[in-house]
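Hi V.,

You were right to ask for the full record rather than a summary. Here it is.
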Amino acid sequence: MFEKLKKNAMETSDDMPHYTCLVCRQDSLAYQISVFQEIEFLSCQTCGSVTTRPIPDQEFIDEALNASRTSQLPPFPSTIERKHFLRHIQELRSVSKTDRCLDLKPHNGVRTEMARIKAFPKIVGLESNPFSAEIAQKRFHKANIINQNISEFDAGTEKFDAAICYHTLENTNDPDGYLEDLKKHLNPKAFVYFSLCDGNHFMVPHTFMKWKEVFYPNRVHYFSREGLEAILKRNGFKIVKRYKRFLPYQHVIARVVK
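Predicted structure:
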């Protein structure tokens, strides 16, 4: 997809917007791959990640996330995705020192409960949406779902050896700050499972706005493989396992290295 956009836009580079990519932090021109009213979706020439312009402030993003009813939706689009998740979480447990895990944005709690039963008995879920947190706690009495976000959470001196970030890094206007907040709660050499959309995948629809994963303002970043690796490396994480996927998604396990 990225190469096709680059070829088509070569002759019109003078009209292309110049910006600093929030993912790879490089100054470059950007390909405008979709427009909705006054919102642009820009693809970085350097890393291929897609971000929106303007970037909404975090309060606006949080209001949209906390007003949504995602707890009423299925946690996985298919049984295959469910199997992938279980296998990935079990592999995350195999490299973690303890069974303490932090699950960011558990929505209706199904994924958190699956992880608790299969891999991490001492898992803690952080859900900023009060409706979703209440539903999750009522459905799964043994689960520990807290109605907070990562920046508000205070676990005291206790830290975690593992974390699950299932489509969460896309929901912030400051992904670097988000990763910094996450690292505060992780032990050295902890492992994190990241699941994200791949905005530079060849399976992404030609008309970007038609992609079912586009949710504005809830989701403002669509990381490429190169972009995800760059931002994780910049914040002290190293990808140790990348799962192969035909569909436009990324699933990786990263380790804290500094």
